[in-house]
Every structure is written in C-alpha cells, then in structure tokens.
Request: fold
Amino acid sequence: MNILVIDAQGGGIGRQVVSAIRDKLPDLTITAVGTNTTATSAMLKAGANAGATGENAVIVGARKADIIIGPIGIVVADSLFGEITPNMAKAVGQSDAKRILIPVNHCDNVVVGIQDIGIKGLVEEVVTELLNSVEH
Reply:
C-alpha cells in the first residue's frame, strides 16, 4: 500500500503525520511530497521512505497513491498561501486514492462543525482512520 503525504510551508503537519504513521504502521511505504524543499525535508527526516518536491511530484504521486493524507488545503487551488497550484488540487481531487484530509482552518478555508482539537489530536485521528483503511 502506497501512502502519499502532502504538505506545504514548513512541513510541520506532514512531519507529525509521517512520524505517527511510522510509529503505528512501520512497514507501510510512505512517500512525502512537499510543495517546497523544506516541507519535503521535514517529512523525510520523520521517516518517509521517499520524497519529492513540487507540482509534478504531487500529480504523479496522486496517480500512484492508495491513500493521500494532508491538510484540507491540498484540494483547494491557491490555498496554503498559494503553494497549492490548481493542477495540484485537481490531481489530488481526481485521484482514485482515498483522501484523509486534516481540517486545518487556515488560508481562508474554514471547516465548520469541527472541534478545535489541535494538530496532535488531528494527527491521532489521521492514524486511526489509516489503521481502519489498511485493515479493510
């Protein structure tokens, strides 16, 4: 199973996700794709098996992934301070992969009805959902 983790800016969310997945599911293949080298590097240091950077890496990775994980902005063009291009958002949105989206209320994308439980709690929910997805 190929898990694709996408993040932008400093890669902090992606780093926490990769680390948490690695702790609970050490044998999964995790590909980290950052919109910039800082984000990619952070996820690689957290234990991703492979990493790449930029728009084409997101497009190719979305085609090959079984599950895509990232902040909700990865499906919104021009989000994450403009780091998500329209082509990136389209590739993630049209992928056949299951998407596990983290409801981070930044960059004018607000998800109502979601408790403010903090990134650590959200990452725990990501891992729980991933465990459920891998087991089925």
In short: The two ends are 12 Å apart (CA to CA). The chain is about 45% helix and 20% strand.
